[in-house]
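Re: that backbone. Tokens:
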């Protein structure tokens, strides 16, 4: 095996929790890296971060998304894609009045 091999497929990595720590299942942004914490960790502790897969993300109840919509993360919720932290692509349509949206992490439009 190559000596520079680090992770099986790079879909999850171990990183140091940023200030404020992380909560299991929460979206985490570290620089341009975005993913979901698989465990809770205090600031400065190592935790595992999932970089792909489909996760529920919090959204405003007034927002609706269609399958294939790009969404960003504004630090607290999924929002329509703009110039923010690219979260991924919506995989199940969701209307207003709902608090979660299913997002394929780090997916891009072909």
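Recovered sequence:
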């Amino acid at each position: 095996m190559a000596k520079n091999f680090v992770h099986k497929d790079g879909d999850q990595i171990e990183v140091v929790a940023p200030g404020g720590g992380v909560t299991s299942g929460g979206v985490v942004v570290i620089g341009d890296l975005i993913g979901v914490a698989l465990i809770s960790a205090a600031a400065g502790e190592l935790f595992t971060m999932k970089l792909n897969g489909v996760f529920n993300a919090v959204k405003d109840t007034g927002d609706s998304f269609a399958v294939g919509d790009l969404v960003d993360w504004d630090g607290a919720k999924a929002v329509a894609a703009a110039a923010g932290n690219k979260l991924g692509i919506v995989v199940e349509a969701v209307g207003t009045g709902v608090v979660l949206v299913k997002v394929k992490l780090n997916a891009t439009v072909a």
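The radius of gyration is 15 Å. The mean pLDDT is 89.
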